[in-house]
């Protein structure tokens, strides 16, 4: 009796791909998760360390980093599912869905923190 694999909606169709491709897909998933953890660490650092930023700017930047981390985690899961399905059904690999939103989030945080440092002021 074969065990059901999770998530069933991924493994229910298609054929088993070369294990190297599935393992590479898993490594990519884990890399996205590590990236999300780095964003969360940045958010904690902004709030925990004594930075010369206005408290409002610091809080907004930290929340933007947390939101970006959540988007990255969703990208990790959805991307893994989409790629694994494509591998199993011998289709071309899909492109990431959230590259642009993550880039915009990081640019916004960088501009916000940079402007806050240039303008100075703590509080």
How would you explain this protein's 3D organization?
The protein is mainly alpha-helical and 123 residues long. It has one domain (18-118). The chain contains 4 helices and no strands. The chain has helices at residues 8-11, 19-48, 55-88, 99-119. The radius of gyration is 19 Å and the shape is elongated.
User: What shape does the CA trace take?
Assistant: elongated
In the predicted model, the low-confidence regions spanning at least 5 consecutive residues are none
Q: Which structural class should the secondary elements be placed in? A: mainly alpha
What's the number of structural domains? 1
* N-C termini distance: 64 Å
Query: What are the secondary-structure elements, in order, as H or E?
Result: HHHH
The helix fraction, in percent, is over 70%
User: How much strand?
Assistant: under 5%
Mean pLDDT: 87
Number of strands: 0
Radius of gyration from the alpha-carbon trace, in angstroms: 19 Å
Number of helices: 4
Major sheet description: none
Layout of helices and strands:
Blueprint: H1 8-11, H2 19-48, H3 55-88, H4 99-119
Spell out the key features of this protein.
single chain; 72% helix; mainly alpha
Task: Briefly characterize the structure.
The protein has 123 residues and is mainly alpha-helical.
């Amino acid at each position: 009796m074969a065990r059901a694999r999770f998530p069933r909606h991924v493994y229910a169709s298609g054929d088993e791909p070369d294990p190297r491709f599935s393992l590479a897909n898993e490594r990519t998933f884990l890399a996205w998760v590590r990236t999300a953890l780095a964003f969360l660490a940045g958010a904690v650092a902004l709030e925990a360390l004594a930075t010369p930023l206005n408290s409002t700017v610091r809080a907004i930047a930290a929340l933007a980093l947390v939101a970006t981390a959540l988007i990255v985690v969703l990208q990790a899961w959805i991307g893994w599912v989409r790629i694994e399905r494509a591998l199993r059904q011998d289709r071309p690999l899909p492109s990431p869905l959230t590259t642009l939103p993550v880039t915009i989030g990081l640019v916004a945080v960088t501009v916000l923190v940079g402007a806050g440092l240039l303008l100075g002021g703590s509080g």
